[in-house]
Amino acid sequence: xxxxxxxxxxxxxxxxxxxxxxxxxxxxxxxxxxxxxxxxxxxxxxxxxxxxxxxxxxxxxxxxxxxxxxxxxxxxxxxxxxxxxxxxxxxxxxxxxxxxxxxxxxxxxxxxxxxxxxxxxxxxxxxxxxxxxxxxxxxxxxxxxxxxxxxxxxxxxxxxxxxxxxxxxxxxxxxxxxxxxxxxxxxxxxxxxxxxxxxxxxxxxxxxxxxxxxxxxxxxxxxxxxxxxxxxxxxxxxxxxxxxxxxxxxxxxxxxxxxxxxxx
Amino acid sequence: xxxxxxxxxxxxxxxxxxxxxxxxxxxxxxxxxxxxxxxxxxxxxxxxxxxxxxxxxxxxxxxxxxxxxxxxxxxxxxxxxxxxxxxxxxxxxxxxxxxxxxxxxxxxxxxxxxxxxxxxxxxxxxxxxxxxxxxxxxxxxxxxxxxxxxxxxxxxxxxxxxxxxxxxxxxxxxxxxxxxxxxxxxxxxxxxxxxxxxxxxxxxxxxxxxxxxxxxxxxxxxxxxxxxxxxxxxxxxxxxxxxxxxxxxxxxxxxxxxxxxxxx
DNA sequence: CGGGCAATTGAAATACATCAAGGCGTGTGG
DNA sequence: CCACACGCCTTGATGTATTTCAATTGCCCG
Lengths: 264, 264
Description:
DNA-binding, 38% helix, alpha+beta, 4-stranded antiparallel sheet, homodimer
């Protein structure tokens, strides 16, 4: 129960091997130091607070584990959410809702610093699934401890509220896009919003960014069919707006592209 | 700065008369006693906590005002949000996003107990507008004080988190509806979800409920045109699923209607 | 080399939008 | 009290964005 040094992390037994998940228990401080989302994420705020405040929560040390899953693997199933708060460290994932007949809507793309569930600290998100697009590594906190930190550190709560506000704004825009924008607008806006988020994480070079999405991901995110996504993307390419090759996307004519996206 | 009895409320100067808003400063305890959303709302949780905890916040009494606006009036404009946390006491309102060319998406219908903005306690919601459908009365809290209560009373924070989870769930479903469901499904689901929410507030009688929405409201909520909404509703009527007259809606064949809505 | 997933393309179908006109109810002003 | 306007609902005809279906290609990986 005594106070211990920070880089100490309680190791946690975890994995069923068939899950293909690697677990390591890295130090919060060192592992996260290189995180591209350091200033954006609730993750960083938590580690800062833990660094200066009391370090035990409900009698235990702050337990975190780091997991790595391969591309295309489903991390959380609709009915099977853990009691943890999970935050992406690296890679791309999607959070989606699926109907019994297979229709699927992607609710958000998860990048470094994003929580699996927008309500993570307070509840799991049954109904949603989370799936890795690229290889993904994420960190998993015990929810009870996470919540305790929240209440002990108002500044962490403030950070969390900023994250919520941002997520909520994106959810609102998603509804506006799906309900009221054309296919061209939706797709252009999806690309631009990803670019913006990558930019904040220093993951772009000029107009070029990593782009691991398959066309069916774009389709499921924009409420369209893969076939139609293909046609729109081909048009964009033919008009010299963008270029995609090798899982890399370049915006060739930003101004015009923003116009197409209806961002004036 | 002393402790005062609860029903005391600091009166607040407020209204420009052209705003058509009536202001009264009713007691939290008495006015809210009859609120149909008593158990659902953050509002009730706040008043319970205030009743037993310290009653001053930042040196002032908890200031709340009650406002009434007539049907069709816009209460909050996209660029003009106050520093208050507003909660509907009575009536129907909508919260929406509008594009410069007039396309509009309704994000939610606000009923008794609902906050104008889902992030109310932490920030305003620039970009959104709130508009009364029926006559609406709402209560307005000072945000700073509201937040203070939140931090002083973990149980209020818990209630708030439940509200958030619920709102978030509805936002997710909205995206799924708009992106992946047919017109019939969207409209049927809108009606059913309103019924469910009214039921929780004891505002339904059997299969009959107040239904003040115009067809253009349904259109803006489901991402359709008013003309198409009309056709779908006519079909529903012709098939004996529902009946609408006099701002009142009755579900005639609940089982089949739920099937149409894709709720199996 | 084969098998499977992803991208591409064209043709046909359809769900929904747009356009246009008429009717009905309600409030308002002469 | 009538006339009129205005908002809302309704209906039919026509247009179009997007889907569905189907077939082909390329590509990665075992």
